[in-house]
Write a structure and sequence with these properties.
Blueprint (H helix, E strand, L loop, with lengths): L1 H9 L16 H13 L3 E12 L2 E2 L4 E8 L3 E6 L2 E6 L2 E6 L4 E6 L11 H9 E11 L2 E10 L6 E9 L5 E8 L3 E12 L17 E4 L2
Parallel strand pairs: 7-13
Antiparallel strand pairs: 1-2, 1-3, 1-12, 3-4, 4-5, 5-6, 6-7, 8-9, 9-10, 10-11, 11-12
Helix pairs in contact: 2-3
Length: about 210
Amino acid sequence: MKNKILVQCICGILLLIPALLFAGKEADDLVSSIQKKYNAINDITITFTQVSHEGNESDGPGMTGTITLQGKDKYRIEMEGQTIVSDGKTVWTFTKSTNQVLVDNYQDDSTVVTPEKILTTFTTQYDAQIVGKETLGAYQTTNLNMTPKVKDSPVKQMKVWVDDTQSLMRKVQVEFTAGNVVTYTINSVKLNGGVSEKLFTFTPPKDAEVVDMR
């Protein structure tokens, strides 16, 4: 369960990929261009900073992480203290603090949100609305509000900042129905880097406890 929650939270940052942005485009056209761009990408590596909020409380400066995605079912998520890897058949979750590795089958389950699904389905499962312009650091951005079409979505809404000049998503804020808000800020993005297949397998440390849930 913790694995699914963490993956679900990280999904929002996968909107932080290059998008084609044209003056005068409506929200749906902008979202469709992001989808089209993703479909042409073989692999993506993103570094990010995640900050969580609940009410007026935050988890401080947040945590940094890296996510690499290839195809529709291979991913590697590395955050402070935890690594999650999928080769499309098996998912490994290593938690450093407990020195434990959970091993499970990869599940193509519509009720489970995995990294690729936010990219492959958000154009059909979310309604997008352009809500204005905003200066975000050194960038002038177009802001999108995205609300899920399905009633039982764990996401209440998302806000996305699109860099007008470099055509990059610079920030995503995800508000969950449970009341917490997670903000992802992109630090770097690399497309089609030719990542090795070895990145999507995981060998547990020799002294780690391995719990096979298959």
